[in-house]
Amino acid sequence: MRQRTFLKTLAIPFVAGTTLLGALAPALAQAPTEVQFYYPVAVGGPIAKIIDGFAEGFMKEHPGIKVTPIYAGTYQETIVKALTAHKSGTPPVTSVLLSTDMFTLIDEDAIVPFDNFAKTAEDKAWMGSFYPAFMMNSRTGGKTWGIPFQRSTVVMYWNKELFKEAGLDPNKPPATWAELKDMAAKLTKKDAGGKTTQYGVQIPSSGFPYWLFQTLTTPNDAILANEAGTKVKFDDPKVVEALQFWVDLGKAGVHPTGVVEWGTTPKDFFEKKAAIIYTTTGNLTNIKANAKFDFGVGMIPGNKRKGSPTGGGNFYIFKKSTPAQQEAAYQFVKWITQPERAAQWSIDTGYVAVSAAAYDTPALKKYGAEFPPALVARDQLPVSVAEFSTHDNQRVTKALNDGLQAALTGAKTPKQAMQDAQKEADRILRGYK
Fold it and tell me: CA-to-CA distance for 176 and 300, rounded, in angstroms?
């Protein structure tokens, strides 16, 4: 379509001895392949500047491709925009969306697997270079649908000064549930009127409640969904026990009661309203810049085992773009995830570099030596599990989130909340089994 319009509107003077096609060839050769790229942040801000810089760097090396980043808001807003555009026949060529959106994108027939483009031995080596933990949410049915980029795990941050004040070793964070509960009690402070001014531990339960819940189910040796994304185990006794532990922290007064906001948890940490918090490694750069005290970063405390869910975003290539656009997007994704760029991205943002080769680069080796907390998320990967994801993911996840919040607010017991969430999930997933 674009070429036809181009032919019609381009004025070419007649030159004796040339054909129209011959005169057009140089002009057509110069028309770049356009790659619209949806990225999940609001317009502006430091991350948008980094992405703009990547796009410019890629275009310098690939003058035949024009990459246009479009900042589409939150992950939720970005997938809604991408799927709306897909249904109207004008999707982005590529987008960074949650790794957990994989089943939804497949169900909507919106994306193509990366295997379609990996033709050479070098391509196949690149596809095999990512950490296995990140590929759990990137592959299904023997195909690779997403390429890890903006990936994370949940880690624990603690205020070393508050540990010293409480008589605790500032370099020895809790490693087990029992230690977490015990230390949180020593780190909780109340004012003269009995109001809590500092909680020992804070685990957010808004935004991504299911994800933070996996920091409790994984250590309790429970997996919430099967690999095919067709079955969940919310009513497993080990899952109920993990939720009971979370609720009991609030009942013991060492953790805020009710729903704890995702967005304000780092701020509560900076303001010493919480001595230990669980949040994404993607907050590391933010905490490093804003904490006015010495802090530690550690793996999530274990119970029956250690572990955390992975998280964050993958690149996807959209099906309704042209073959030339898809190939151009593939080249861009391959370029942006090369070890040197993955290393710089990790340093600049706090996200986990997606391959072992990135940690072998001089830049990330130097950064890791100077700032060891940057290596904690990577070191947690061998015990990490896939972020919770199923077919019809948003509705199933909502059933789980609603159950978690019902238990945390005291509206239901953990057992009842998980049984109700199980029934709802079974109903939604019936057609996928």
Answer: 8
**Two tokens, residue 286:** 């933010």
The pair phi, psi for residue 243, each rounded to 5°, is -70, -40
pTM: 0.87
Burial class (CB within 10 angstroms; exposed 0-12, middle 13-18, buried 19+) of 289: exposed
**pLDDT tens digit string along 242-257?**
999 999 999 999 999 9
User: Domain limits of the chain?
Assistant: 2-152+311-383, 155-310+385-432
CATH architecture label of 2-152+311-383: 3-Layer(aba) Sandwich (3.40)
pLDDT score for 207: 87
Query: Is residue 10 over pLDDT 80?
Result: no
Q: What is the pLDDT of residues 110-124, one digit of tens each?
A: 999 999 999 999 999
Q: Which CATH superfamily is domain 155-310+385-432 in?
A: Periplasmic binding protein-like II (3.40.190.10)
**C-alpha–C-alpha distance, residues 251 and 407, integer Å:** 12
Query: Is 278 in contact with 114 (CB distance < 8 Å)?
Result: no
Residues 6 or more apart from 78 whose CB is under 8 A from it?
38, 39, 40, 72, 95, 96, 97
Cα maximum dimension of the chain:
96
CA 429: distance to chain centroid?
24
Q: What is the rounded average pLDDT of the residues 201-206?
A: 97
Asked whether the beta carbons of 214 and 152 are under 8 A apart, the reply is no
User: Cα–Cα distance between 249 and 193 in angstroms, integer?
Assistant: 21
> Which distant-in-sequence residues (6+ apart) come within 8 Å of 113 by Cβ?
143, 144, 145
8 Å CB contact between 243 and 213: yes
Distance CA 32, CA 178 (A): 60
User: What gap in Å lies between CA 50 and CA 382, rounded to an integer?
Assistant: 29
Residue 33: CB partners within 8 Å, gap ≥ 6?
64, 65, 66, 324, 325, 327, 328
Domains 2-152+311-383 and 155-310+385-432 share a fold: yes
Quote the CA–CA distance of 67 and 59 in Å, as a whole number: 7
Q: What's the pLDDT tens digit per position in 260-312?
A: 999 999 999 999 999 999 999 989 989 999 999 999 999 999 999 999 999 99
What pLDDT, in 10s, does the model give residues 316-364? 999 999 999 999 999 999 999 999 999 999 999 889 999 999 999 999 9
Residue 29's pLDDT is what? 54
Which residue shows structure tokens 């490093």? Answer: 288
